[in-house]
Amino acid sequence: MPTIKIFPHPEYCPQGAEITAPAGTSICEALLDNHINIEHACEMSCACTTCHVIVRRGFNSLNEAEEGEEDLLDRAWGLEPQSRLSCQAILAQEDVTIEIPKYSINHAKENH
Question: Which residue, of 9, 43, 55, 82, is most buried by count of CB atoms within 10 Å of its CB?
């Protein structure tokens, strides 16, 4: 099973974390399954940018982003070339390292 290393984030995982998830799982699902409650206001339907992550290692092992995801990412806070919507980024067999941006464009939290 691939490992996801998460850089420290003041709200979601202050100490950082390392979790595992089966290949074929989205990064968002893996985070939520491991009690890292990342925002996902659209319920993982690729309709917002609240689950935006920056993939620091293992980016090329993920499935390719589709046009709808790329269009949404253009609106994400802190967009970088390795940005993905975690609900659309599907794990393969390689380990990945991610950073959850400090901010999102969401003005209100959903408390999922």
Answer: 55
pLDDT tens for 79-110 read: 999 999 999 999 999 999 999 998 776 644 44
As a whole number, mean pLDDT of residues 24-53 equals 95
CA distance 35 to 33: 6
Domain CATH for 43 = 3.10.20.30
Residue 61, exposed/middle/buried by CB under 10 A (0-12, 13-18, 19+)?
middle
17 — alpha (psi -120 to 50), left (phi > 0) or beta? beta
Asked whether residue 109 is assigned to any structural domain, the reply reads no
d(CA 93, CA 106): 32
Q: Name the residue range of residue 8's domain.
A: 3-99
